Amino acid sequence: MTETKQDDNLLKIMKEARHDETIKFKTSDGKDGSRKATYEDPGIGIAMRIMDLMNTGDDNGDFGDLYQQIMDHVLITPRWSYEKLEKELPEALHKKQVDAKNKADKDVKIEMVWPGYRTALQIMMLVERPSGASNMHDTLVVLNREVFRHNGQPVRMEHWEMGHDGYGIGMKAFMEATEYLRDTLAYNGVLSTLTEGVRFLSDTVRFK
């Protein structure tokens, strides 16, 4: 009888440690989509370790690792990894081109490639630093290396300067790239599902 009561209490505790959420999102064709997601309290030690990744010092954070830890320790359903997410991303979202006219009145294309979920999350979460300070220059440096392409190659900062194809459209390219990353991260509700995991974790250990 005692063992049964203990088992019942354990099941109750385990149930209370989990939370089901309906994640709503827009599908690629603009329709309303939703999924059931289940999150689990990983314990205060792991939770604190994950939340520490939001600010790792020098006004920086490791959000690529943070979301990996969310998938490893908090998100129970669906069961995701970066490798699985990459395999499920449609080929059509791996590249994007935008027509533009540079300051020399020349028609050019802003060419972009998908850098992978880990890198994309890191870029998008650090457009603004943990302190709230702007991080536009360093974000553009990373975009040049990881996202922008010219003749199939990463670009340098000079690409956006006088005498080069990107002259006068650097800010437009910046906005196009962040929109591309944001929209691709939002595909199939991935970003909403992961950020809900962070919110759940914060509420669970009362960080807010």
Description:
Helices cover 45% and strands 18% of the residues. It is built from eight helices and six strands; from the N terminus they run αββααβαββααβαα. Strands 1-2-3 form a three-stranded antiparallel beta sheet. α3 crosses α5 (117-125) and α5 packs across α7 (170-185). The model has no long low-confidence stretch (mean pLDDT 92).
The largest sheet is: 3 strands, antiparallel
Beta-strand fraction estimate: 15-25%
Helix content: 40-55%
SSE arrangement, N to C: HEEHHEHEEHHEHH
How far apart, in Å, are the first and last alpha carbons? 41 Å
Structural class: alpha+beta
- Uncertain spans: none
- Average residue-wise pLDDT: 92
SS summary, helix count: 8
Widest sheet: strand order?
1-2-3
- How many β-strands, per DSSP? 6
Shape: globular
Q: Could you tell me the radius of gyration in angstroms?
A: 21 Å
Task: Write out key terms for the chains shown.
208 residues, alpha+beta, three-stranded antiparallel sheet, 8 helices, 45% helix, globular
Short description:
The protein is of the alpha+beta class. 45% of the residues lie in helices and 18% in strands.
